[in-house]
Amino acid sequence: MKQAKFLVMEGCDGSGKTTVSQAVYKRLKEEGVDIIYTREPGGIDISEQIRAVILDPKNTAMNNRTEALLYAAGRRQHLVEKILPAMEKGQWVLCDRFVFSSLAYQGYARGIGMEEVMKINEFALEGVEPGHTIFLDIPAEVGLERINRNRSYLDRLDQEGLDFHNRVFQGYQEVLKKYGKDTKVIDANRPAEDVIEDVYKYLVEECGVCAKR
Fold first, then answer.
1. 74-127 tens-digit pLDDT
2. Is the pTM above the cut of 0.85?
3. Could you tell me which residues come within 8 angstroms of residue 159 by beta carbon, excluding any fewer than 6 positions away?
4. 209-212 contacts: CB < 8 A, separation 24 or more?
5. 191 phi/psi in degrees, rounded to 5
6. Which of 4, 39, 83, 170 has the greatest CB tally within 10 Å of its CB?
């Protein structure tokens, strides 16, 4: 079941998701919108602990299916402990990554299969879907260049090579074809301020995000 107040930002590594989503969240908050910002994997204590295990560069022995299961486990806890309670209080939720990430990264790029990964997540989410998803579109090589230029610490996924990140990008294209009919695609290969403005306008003008009157 789609949750109208549940908003998700998706994109490859280096697409600017976190920068854009945090900037838009701050602007909406300043305008009086009752909204929270959160992220995946993570968002609450248990899921942050799972995130640390997944992204630790030392965990090179992690099996691909183990990785997919850990993401789904973190997502389940995040959903029941933070996302659903916020919406029950009437708040908007802006989340950095959700199920599309698992489908692109583990389902497609890791070769597990999107349907297999979706089944894991269907068990975890019990039918909950975001009402609106935004995909920040950027070539994998541009995103990887940004990561290498701007980050002093590279996690386990950041350290994957260009071939992997190209598969992630292609995975997102397949995800959008199959599941993304209501997803807004925004060109992220532009200055951050332009992307932020386009995302803000979409949330306000098309998704109805506004302060209570």
1. 999 999 999 999 999 999 999 999 999 999 999 999 999 999 999 999 999 999
2. yes
3. 57
4. 209/7, 209/28, 209/33, 209/35, 209/92, 210/33, 211/31, 211/32, 211/33, 211/34, 212/32, 212/34, 212/90
5. -55, 145
6. 83
Is residue 175 within 8 A of residue 108, CB to CB? The reply is: yes
Instruction: Indicate left, alpha or beta for 16 from its phi (over 0: left) and psi (-120 to 50: alpha).
Output: left
207: number of Cβ within 10 Å: 16
8 Å CB contact between 3 and 87: yes
- The sign of the CA dihedral 161, 162, 167, 172 is positive
CA separation for the pair 185, 199 (Å, rounded): 10
Phi/psi of residue 148, nearest 5 degrees = -65, -30
Residue in 73, 54, 72, 50 with CA at minimum distance from that of residue 63: 54
Q: What share of the chain is helix, strand, coil (3-state, %, to 5)?
A: 55, 15, 30
* Residues 148-192 pLDDT 10s: 887 767 788 878 889 999 999 999 999 999 999 889 999 999 999
First vs last Cα of the chain: how many Å apart?
27
Please confirm whether the linkage preceding 191 is cis (ω < 30° from 0).
no
Separation CA 28–CA 48 (nearest Å): 25
Distance from C-alpha of 2 to C-alpha of 131, rounded to nearest angstrom: 5
Q: What is the pLDDT of residues 3-56, one digit of tens each?
A: 999 999 999 999 999 999 999 999 999 999 999 999 999 999 999 999 999 999
Beta bridge partners of residue 185, listed in sequence order? 135
